[in-house]
Amino acid sequence: MARRSKAQAAKAATSDDAEASPKGPAPFPELDRDRVATVDMLFTHHDRIAHVDDPIWADVSSLAAAGRTLFVTCDETASVEGLDWDPDTGRALDHRSYPLGLVFELPAGARGEMDIEGLAVSDGWLWVCGSHGLKRGKPGSKKFKDLASIDWDPNRGFLGRLPLVERSGGRFEPVAVSDPIDGAPERRAAMLPMTGTRDAYLRKLLAKDPLIAPFIDLPCKENGFDIEGIAARGNEVILGLRGPVLRGWALIVRLEMKETQAGELKPVKREDGRRYAIHALDLNGQGIRDLAWDGDRLLILSGAISDHEALQSVFALDPADFDREVIGADRLPRILDLVIQRGGDNAEGLEIVGEGADRRLMIVYDSPHNHRTDADEGRLTGDLFTLD
């Protein structure tokens, strides 16, 4: 994610041929999906939240929805934020913060940065995923050598789920344990095992893959391994990678999850002996910033691998049957192009909200420009687009 300083933020191919390289961009679509509305998210000031040190509105990195509740995350924290959205007023209020350290034993503790880049709601669960990526140090005014430092935040290796409980008025909340309802058994929060080392479960698993292994120990934003989106349906989890992008092909990783007798999550072993499947997608040379299910099609938000500014788009894999390992441009129509905004407004989260004729595509942004923010209100403004 391209990011300004905190001070600035506070102020403001064909599918059949696996060896084919991606085609050039398809003809530029008519921009008939203009923004139709906005949503103003109003967050509690970070000074009033014990486990938060920075303005949440300045670093929103993911989005999911359940009922009238919007869930977002700030990539600097170890919590999920919930707000109640009213489509009639266009405002999302009553901010609640849910520290994941109260539910899970996190290796870096409840305040350790998780770099949460993926949220998804499915079948009464809220799925949460950290980036799993390494990060390069920033050069100080007198310490250019800090660029040589490559660091690992242990909480980044998180992938887990929490039961959602519906309260009055269509509000949903994540809990550690849900009560049995109508004879259904209780549900408990669970996660992949966490070691605290760079050999986090998914990193260790994918370090054996010939495609991903060379990029596991490269920093994110430098074509290193970096999860930036998640979609879930039943027990299947799809992870969208910002990197690596291989000769212009973006990658997704599919996992079928189960819960062990010890109460941990674990990917199911597939017929080929692996616990995952990888697919390559032609997104015009870009990586993946987020994923969202829309019926039988999978919507994919694209973006640059590095910090440089580039066109961001939404692609639709329709239907998302994953019958091929290589998915070419002919199966990935581009349904929305976002306006390039220099110096910020990096699209980080997308979700489908509303029903029937009121369905909309919601997009939220990291490093927001001043017109999207108000530090006194704690406001971040996202966009709503029409959706066929």
Gross morphology: globular
Distance from first to last alpha carbon: 29 Å
CATH topology annotation: Tachylectin-2, Chain A
> Main sheet?
9 strands, mixed
Rg from C-alpha positions? Answer: 20 Å
Give the total of domains: 1
The CATH C-level name is Mainly Beta
Helix content, binned percent? under 10%
CATH architecture: 5 Propeller
Instruction: Please report the number of helical segments.
Output: 2
| Poorly predicted spans | 1-33
DSSP summary, beta strand count: 28
Structural class: mainly beta
Strand content: 35-45%
The average pLDDT is 89
Order of helices and strands: HEEEEEEEEEEEEEEHEEEEEEEEEEEEEE
Protein name: DUF3616 domain-containing protein
Pfam families: DUF3616
Overview in brief:
Residues 59-377 form the DUF3616 domain. This protein has a single domain (34-386), classed as Tachylectin-2, Chain A, CATH 2.115.10. It contains two helices and 28 strands.
Characteristic key phrases:
Tachylectin-2, Chain A; 3% helix; DUF3616; six-stranded mixed sheet; DUF3616 domain-containing protein; nine-stranded mixed sheet; 388 residues; 2 helices; mainly beta; globular
